[in-house]
Write a structure and sequence with these properties.
Blueprint lengths: L1 E6 L5 H13 L4 E6 L1 H8 L5 E3 L14 H10 L1 H18 L3 E5 L2 H10 L3 E5 L3 H4 L9 H14 L5 E5 L10 E3 L5 H4 L9 E4 L7 H7 L5 E4 L10 E4 L3 H10 L3 E3 L3 H10 L3 E3 L6 H13 L2 E3 L5 H9 L1 H10 L6 H17 L24
Parallel strand pairs: 1-2, 1-4, 2-3, 4-5, 5-6, 6-7, 8-9, 8-11, 9-10, 11-12, 12-13
Helix pairs in contact: 1-2, 1-15, 4-5
């Protein structure tokens, strides 16, 4: 089957998730991939027929989302965004894909909608739109805005596949366990290494001073390569090095980005999450992390918060040993897509996939931590 696969270029989480699914799909189908920024470069090195487009981006200031920055940046890039939509439109007209898969890429979704091509959405963001997920009432306005953005970016899909480590009741969506790269799962695990620290942006400048006041070692990604500062080692992102560090770390300190949290949960690594301000998707990820007992959420990381988190690692790790964790999220998602393909190939548009995972349902494949 001819499949057009759109991948959001913001950050690397969408690209690494797409790779895990594409490893399966490209063996069976003719797939063309569309993405931008670092995600395009990452996917181009690993797959054929990868096309560059320009997408939307989040602008950060002082570890917070800048709404004005996003607005101005989007305005300046409007011609590139229009060009990208036309490029996707042209590819759909000339290549005639039979299925569109979007990992939070709006252009492929809208083209599928316009031409009546079945669309499969893979995301973690739509847990807010397609499930009965709960959160404190004080976040209601932020949740509403995020839900609206999700609906505008991905207005239509014949099938929603939502990857998650928490399983609320779903509405017309399939919930699957975290989609994690096979290469990461093959590495031998330990907890003898330093704490892994990862930052979405370079604007959280106070974090380094906090880490320097704590005992033990920290390896930090997200600030670029710098000279080591006491017990803090800075590293430029390198996938091989990052895999080794997360496999050997005793814990993870990060923002609220889904991909790293889900990888850490799958590997049995407790997480301290400080969501970027004004980005409710990250706040929700951190809330669910704490609700499930896999880590803690902090509005602002300080010395006392990190010290308390590290002092309670044994208790958090016991939570991982109490419940099986899923290895095969990519295989589950690919299997759902394959069954959907069989249905549309036989002329039936609506999927007949199994009932979604429910809250409390054990994950069917186990990892021994």
């Amino acid at each position: 089957m001819r499949i057009l696969y759109g991948v959001a270029g913001e950050g690397m989480g969408h690209a690494t998730r797409a790779k895990a699914v594409l490893d399966s799909l490209t063996n069976r189908h003719d797939v063309r991939i569309l993405s931008g920024s670092r995600a395009f470069e990452y996917l181009q090195r690993r797959f054929r027929a990868v096309h560059r487009i320009f997408g939307f981006h989040i602008i950060y200031w002082d570890n917070s989302v800048s709404d004005l920055g996003i607005l101005l940046y989007t305005f300046v890039r409007a011609p590139l965004l229009a060009f990208s939509f036309l490029k996707v439109l042209f590819l759909a007209l000339t290549w005639k894909p039979q299925l569109i898969i979007t990992d939070y890429d709006p252009f492929t979704c809208y083209v599928g909608w316009l031409f009546g091509i079945p669309v499969v959405s893979i995301s973690n963001q739509h847990i807010l739109n397609k499930t009965h997920v709960s959160y404190p009432r004080r976040y209601a306005w932020e949740a509403f805005k995020t839900r609206l953005v999700n609906a505008l970016l991905i207005p239509h899909a014949a099938l929603h596949v939502i990857t998650t480590f928490s399983f609320p009741r779903a509405n017309n969506a399939m919930l699957v366990p975290p989609i994690v790269r096979k290469e990461l799962l093959r590495i031998r695990m330990s907890d003898s290494g330093p704490v892994l620290v990862y930052q979405t942006s370079k604007t959280n400048k106070r974090l380094v001073s906090v880490l320097r006041q704590l005992p033990g070692g920290f390896v930090v990604y997200g600030f670029g390569k710098r000279p080591a500062t006491g017990n803090v080692l800075f590293k430029e992102f390198n996938e091989t090095e990052f895999f080794k560090d997360i496999a050997s770390c005793k814990a993870v300190i990060t923002n609220g980005g889904y991909s790293l949290i889900s990888e850490a949960v799958t590997l049995g690594k407790p997480v301290l999450a400080e969501p970027v301000a004004k980005q409710f998707e990250q706040t929700l990820n951190a809330l669910l992390l704490e609700k499930e007992g896999y880590g803690r959420m902090a509005a602002k990381i300080d010395v006392a918060t990190v010290a308390s988190f590290l002092a309670h690692l044994d208790g958090l790790k016991r939570r991982f040993s109490e419940e099986s964790t899923e290895l095969a999220g990519a295989e589950v998602a690919a299997g759902i897509i394959e069954r959907f393909i069989q249905r549309i190939s036989s002329g039936v548009r609506r999927s007949s996939v199994p009932a979604p995972f429910r809250a409390g349902t054990p994950w069917p494949f186990q990892l021994k931590h």
